[in-house]
Amino acid sequence: MASVHLESHDDLGTAVRVRLAGFVRSLRDSGYKVGLGETEDAIRLLRSDIIKRPQRLKEAFRALFSGRLSDWTKFDDVFDAYWLGRGVKSGIKVSGSSSRKTTKTIREMVDAQGPPQDTIAGDVDRVPGEEDEPSDETPSGRREGASIADHLGKADFRNIHDPEQLAKAHELAEKLARAMRIRLTRRDKQKRKGPRLDLRKTIRHSIAQGGTPIELIRKGPRTRQLRLVILLDASGSMSNYTGVFTRFVHGLLDNFREAEAFLFHTRLVHVSSALSERDATRALDRMGLMAQGIGGGTKIGEALADFNRSHAARVIHSRTCVMILSDGYDTGTPDQLGDEMARLRKRCKRIIWLNPMIGWDGYEPVTGGMQAALPHVDLFAPAHNLDSLAALEPYLERL
Amino acid sequence: MTTQTKDTLAEALAGAGYVADDGLAMALLLTEMLNRPLLLEGEAGVGKTEVAKALAKLDNTDLIRLQCYEGLDRSDAIYEWNYQRQLLAIKAREGSGDNAETVEEAVFSEKYLLERPLLAAIRQDKAPVLLIDEVDRADEEFEAFLLELLSDFQVSIPELGTIEAKSIPRVILTSNGTRELSDALRRRCLYHYVDYPDPSREARILLSRVEGLDTALALQIAELMGKLRKEDLTKVPGVAETIDWAAALVGLGTKNLHERRETVFDTLVCVLKTREDQARITPEVTDRLLGKVA
Lengths: 399, 294
Hints:
- The structure holds two protein chains of two kinds.
- Chain A contains 17 helices and eight strands.
- Chain A has helices spanning 14-29, 36-47, 54-65, 69-83, 92-113, 120-125, 141-153, 163-190, 199-206, 239-253, 272-275, 280-291, 300-315, 334-347, 368-373, 386-390, 392-398, and strands at residues 196-197, 218-219, 227-233, 259-264, 268-270, 320-325, 350-355, 379-382.
- In chain A, the strands form two sheets. Chain A has a six-stranded mixed β-sheet, with helices on both faces. A two-stranded antiparallel ribbon of chain A has the order 1-2.
- Chain A is globular, with a radius of gyration of 26 Å.
- Chain B has three domains: 6-73 and 116-193, P-loop containing nucleotide triphosphate hydrolases (Rossmann fold, 3-Layer(aba) Sandwich), CATH 3.40.50; 81-110, no CATH class; 199-285.
- In chain B, helix 1 (6-15) crosses helix 2 (22-34) and helix 10 packs across helix 11 (215-230).
- Chain B is an alpha/beta fold.
- Helix content of chain B is 49%, strand content 13%.
- Chain B contains 15 helices and nine strands.
- Chain B has a five-stranded parallel β-sheet.
- Chains A and B meet through helix 2, helix 3, helix 4, helix 9 and helix 13 of A and helix 2, helix 5, helix 6, helix 9 and strand 9 of B.
- Chain B: Residues 34-200 form the AAA+ ATPase domain.
- Chain B: InterPro entries: AAA+_ATPase, ATPase_dyneun-rel_AAA, CbbQ/NirQ/NorQ/GpvN, P-loop_NTPase.
């Protein structure tokens, strides 16, 4: 097996070790997940004789340190920047410093609001409007949060102007999404009862009874998770809502692997990787960087076409629910939007269209784009305040 | 296997029917050197599975393949007890007066153990190539089983104890990216992204796989495929399709694509696999694509 011979005669010099440690650090700064194991292997590689030229070292390190396509494609830049002293194109420093600043502010926000991590159950129960009655008590940290939730639940996001209130709405949207996510996952686990016989356990039990399988032990069906694919409209007309929606989406996606998110405007950007960042503010920061450079009107049809062509085959399976968050103002042709919606409909299980304008008095979906899209939509629901977001859960649960 | 450098490995692989680029050759060399599995990601049809096949051929060893799917579990992938035989054995001992413990011991022994691919892979005398195909289709829990196996190369069976690897297989995992894999699994593996080959590499692949194909035609086909993949297609054709198509063209006695436009159009069924795509690539489009070919 190990026909490649590792030379283990003399140890690596300290200088090389220090350089390597620096490289590992710069990889981590760029978002690579590098552990001790990789570093040890890197030392083995440096000791071996298969690497004689820098190009070889780069290839070897790329295979060793990369974990995913994004790591793999940017590896050359990171490597060259560190070992060959060439400038890095990406704005790592900029995003790092700004995120640190914003992280601090969100921490301040959380501190101001009370205990940073309420229990999940607490969150679930406090879905706005469900439990908390207005109370005369002196507001403690918790109560205060709840009553604000109550008050915020019905307020249209576009009417919330106070930055502090808005920040709270953002935070609540995210908490709400997390609670929904956890409940959706738990529902799967509780369903484990079913018709299949578990022969292995049955036989094991039957031994005590002389081999007669008196007690039959059953196996539940394999539980299958719903996958969410979210397409978020980030155009100018949605600007009042994008903030709160991105937090909502982040809450749904965080650490939940069965979900993908895309942002569209005049073109489509895949933002799942940015949103997989644990820290909300940092995630939004990264997403902002990814979405930069898009502007002008919304071309929903084109964005959907791009999605259908380049991403659908990969991210959609038969139990996928596609959630589109958009006001339906489309500068493209309604025909294209209709066609692309039809194509998308064929692939997935459900399409939910959340439109903040449904919440407005007297709104009718009369725009050409919305008209073309509606026949292919399973649920057309409002999403203008926290209550309307919370109302989605029972629907998602039925999927 | 006596490969010492990346280049000799690439050469040897080419001999086994796989034309690898530099990065892949290096990654393969490292799998051997560091005893780490290699995770290959890329679009369907770029030849990820072929890598494992070529490797097995090159090492002159067995290829053990585990095709992943939703719902794949331990009993399909690692081991299972032979229940029918166990039941029979228990029945046969009924009158023997053995106590339950003895029966249990007898029934849960090696004799009644059914090996599934992962257990089989670590119990070979000669290290095989283990191909875990489309790992992204398996469920997340399954990844956890894999991690145990891939980090320690051992399997624990409650009734028997721990079974350690006789030989450590070379592991190739492939993924089409339908589901995000866990960081733990990714970190355990070396990584390489397999892209569609560029025309010169695709031509070399064709030459190694299709008999009676001459170099000029191979290059024409490969270049045409390159252009075709840039068209707006529902299902982008992979390398396997190119090979089929080249074989079809050779079979029809084609020498030069430009002289046989009709044949080219008629044989496009080899590479276009959906009705929409076939409708999209009209004779005019074919002409346009051909026009671009040098």
